[in-house]
Design brief:
The chain contains 11 helices and 21 strands. By secondary structure, the chain is of the alpha/beta class. It folds into 3 domains: 3-40; 76-279, 3-Layer(aba) Sandwich (Rossmann fold), CATH 3.40.50; 283-458, Ribosomal Protein S5, domain 2 (2-Layer Sandwich). The strands form 4 sheets. It has a 9-stranded mixed sheet, with helices on both faces. Helix 2 (107-117) packs across helix 3. It binds thymidine-5'-diphosphate and magnesium ion. Magnesium ion (MG) binds at residues 107-108, 129, 175.
């Protein structure tokens, strides 16, 4: 017998409550409780579709860690170096991957491309958003053909599992988890309890059948994946696709990965025929100019374990209105304010009355603090209207006292700069320890304080 029950759920964190309350006691958000009808099934009600045997699973026995074998789970190789790296070396069988990103960023495209290129696996691509024809059209655009990819337009999870039993796919892709609904809960698709329940069903499916599942998830205005935070706890890996929709570059990051590092990043380029991997990002992120321009500095940054040279741009002008404006694209605005305060207080530049605009080329968002030095130099260059020579690049963090702090993996940064033909790199004096300056063709200059950098560049 089943009974119907009404429960209130916080739409922010998913905490349930028997009655409506104004403030969520678990995440402290206001006005987030929404009534959802939960159709409670009795214990044996649910279809045991995918597990095959009707007997309940026997309880597990404890086992010594040294006796646990790893060889049973070889990873599934995926086409493309970028995705392989971000996933930590391929798809782990039985893993549940959540793939989030803003609308129109290219989630469906990347997943379809994965489905089309994994030719030796039987794949089920479930779409709750697009029709079969739309998916076919996109596949034609991508221009890869396969005879192993099944398309299913369906939003009910019970029907999806029925198809899964029939087709027995080796990889399931869900586009998207917010459009699905299970018959066991009466609330509308996309509501917290639905999203959580559907995800839980696929989690059980993935673990019981050892089939990997990719779920596309929408993200909210604030940038987190729509639905309860528990969704992110449930899955093994959370991938984020980001980038500026008006630029062609897209970044793929893992924000959680039970099977690999979250440091890795993949770069893609959105073309007319789908997403193309960018294997050498530095070459495209730096604009070759005929004449040096003020306000431009090149930074040798690290994205994960990959060195990358990025162009930072700054524009400093007299404030037209009373309050000076500070605007930044691709860089943390609060950190920019801090850097400006350091320049004002420690180096005596009067930037408090100036508008300052910052841009990281290519629509890329950089979190590596090693970009500070280049950014500060770009600001000074624009402020003084003196171009920085084009063969100079920077790597260093700027501290509150105006000191230049060392950054990690300095050798890799130097090598990348050298490879791209830069003649000089400026870094922190503290970074010189342990590196052999003479082994590089590139000239390595160092500074301990911001003041020294200025004379190094313009000398
Ligand atoms: P899509 O994968 O539908 O985004 P999401 O699933 O994240 O919402 O991608 C949508 C955008 O990508 C769309 O604006 C068109 C563009 N696009 C291309 O530029 N080239 C292509 O080959 C494809 C398939 C899409
Ligand atoms: Mg889509």
């Amino acid at each position: 017998m089943s009974k119907t029950k009404v429960t209130f759920f916080c739409q922010n964190c998913g905490a349930p409550s028997a009655k409506w309350i104004g403030k969520c006691p678990s995440c402290n958000e206001w006005n987030t409780y929404v009534e959802e009808v939960v159709h409670k099934e009795s214990k044996n009600d649910r279809l045991q579709l995918f597990s095959g045997n009707k007997n309940p699973k026997q309880s597990n026995k404890s086992i010594l860690l040294q006796d646990v074998g790893l060889q049973d789970f070889p990873r599934i190789a995926v086409p493309g170096k970028e995705l392989t790296r971000v996933l930590g070396g391929g798809i782990v069988p039985g893993s549940l991957v959540l793939f989030g990103g803003e609308p129109g960023i290219g989630k469906s495209t990347l997943m379809l491309q994965l489905a089309l290129r994994l030719k030796n696996l039987k794949i089920l691509y479930v779409s709750g958003e697009e029709s079969e024809q739309q998916i076919k059209m996109r596949a034609e655009r991508i221009g890869v053909t396969t005879d192993n990819c099944f398309i299913l337009q369906e939003t009910n999870t019970q029907n999806i599992f029925q198809q899964i039993v029939e087709i027995e796919p080796q990889l399931v892709i869900i586009d998207s988890i917010q459009t699905l609904h299970t018959s066991y809960i009466d609330s509308s698709p996309g509501s917290v309890s639905q999203v959580r329940e559907c995800a839980a069903e696929f989690l059980r499916f993935a673990k019981e059948t050892n089939t990997p599942v990719f779920m596309i998830g929408h993200i909210t205005k604030e940038g987190s994946i729509a639905g309860p935070k528990v969704l992110e706890h449930m899955v093994d890996t959370v991938l984020q696709f980001e980038g500026d929709r008006n630029h062609i570059y897209r970044l793929l990051r893992a924000t959680k990965n039970r099977f690999g590092s979250t440091n890795e990043m993949g770069i893609y380029e959105m073309n007319g025929d789908g997403l193309r991997e960018v294997t050498n990002p530095s070459e495209i992120l730096i604009t070759a100019r005929d004449t040096p321009t003020s306000g431009v500095a090149i930074s040798a940054t690290m994205e994960g374990n990959r060195p990358m040279l990025i162009e930072t741009q700054a524009l400093v002008s007299s404030a037209a209105y009373g309050t000076p404006q500070r605007s930044s694209t691709g860089f943390d605005l609060r950190r920019l304010s801090m850097l400006l305060a350091v320049l004002e207080k420690r180096c005596g530049f009067r930037l408090g009355v100036k508008d300052v605009f910052i841009n990281i080329a290519g629509g890329i968002r950089v979190e590596d603090p090693g970009i500070d030095l280049a950014l500060v130099c770009a600001i000074l260059s624009s402020n003084e209207d003196m171009p920085i020579p084009q063969d100079v690049c920077f790597a260093g963090e700027v501290g509150l006292t105006g000191e230049i702090r060392p950054v990690n993996r300095i050798e890799q940064r130097i090598s990348e700069a050298e490879k791209l033909g830069f003649k000089k790199i400026i870094l922190s004096s503290y970074n010189l320890k342990g590196i052999n300056v003479n082994s590089y063709k590139i000239k390595i200059l160092s500074a301990a304080k911001m003041e020294e950098v200025f004379s190094l560049i313009f000398g």
